[in-house]
Amino acid sequence: MAGIEIATKQDLLDLEERIIEEIRKSKGAPEEPRKLLKSYQVKNLLKISPGTLQNLRVNGTLPFTRVGGIIYYKYDDIMKIFQREKIESPPKAPTLKKRIQ
């Protein structure tokens, strides 16, 4: 038997925003980069779980602003993390091929 799920006002607002974004994408309207992102947008962008996002907040890796019950993240802060954590690949070492005789 399925349990009853209750949607909050914030759940409905988030759903509305996602639907509007999908409509814009389907119409081919250029999507402007957002300066502030909500939690679900950051999770989708980074492909991370809610727990991972919370850990990034708690350990200070990702700055955030809480307004009421909504948490916002600056897009620029997310991009700074990528630059800070960027690992350059070392140049490939020459390989020595051993001749089999």
Layout: helices, strands, pairs:
Elements: H1 9-27, E1 36-38, H2 39-46, H3 50-58, E2 65-67, E3 70-74, H4 75-85
Antiparallel strand pairs: 1-3, 2-3
Describe, in plain words, how this protein is organized in 3D.
This protein has 101 residues and is mainly alpha-helical. It has a domain at 34-85: Arc Repressor Mutant, subunit A. 47% of the residues lie in helices and 11% in strands. A three-stranded antiparallel beta sheet has the order 1-3-2. The radius of gyration is 21 Å and the shape is elongated. The N and C termini lie far apart (71 Å).
Task: List key phrases describing it.
single chain, 101 residues, mainly alpha, Arc Repressor Mutant, subunit A, three-stranded antiparallel β-sheet, 4 helices, DNA-bd_dom_put_sf
Helix content: 40-55%
Largest beta sheet, briefly?
3 strands, antiparallel
Computed Rg: 21 Å
Number of DSSP E strands = 3
Q: What is the overall number of helices?
A: 4
Q: Characterize the overall form.
A: elongated
CATH architecture of the domain at 34-85: Orthogonal Bundle
Q: What's the CATH class label of the domain at 34-85?
A: Mainly Alpha
Query: What low-confidence regions span 5 or more consecutive residues with pLDDT below 50?
Result: none
Distance between the ends: 71 Å
Organism: Mucilaginibacter gossypiicola
Protein name: Helix-turn-helix domain-containing protein
